[in-house]
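Take a minute with the sequence and fold tokens given here and flag any structure token that looks odd. Thanks in advance.
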Amino acid sequence: MTVYEYAHSPLLMSLMRLLWASLHGGPRVMRTHAESVRQHAEILDALRAGDAAAAASLTHRHIMGVEHLPGPGGP
């Protein structure tokens, strides 16, 4: 959430809070915690370097490039 706060967008923060609240404990993914931490570190490194394109690409891969586990009560 800290990264989203730096966008200084109340709308973005509201949307992210709603998204996380709707996930009831967070997303259920096949990725290990260690892999998630590594990907977050890569995103932060790109942000620190001022490389917006790399940060955007890494964020997209982190969110869209993961297999999700079935939710409760469904496939």
User: Anything to note?
Assistant: The helical segments are 2-5, 10-22, 33-48, 52-64. DSSP finds four helices and no strands in the chain. The chain has one domain: 2-64.
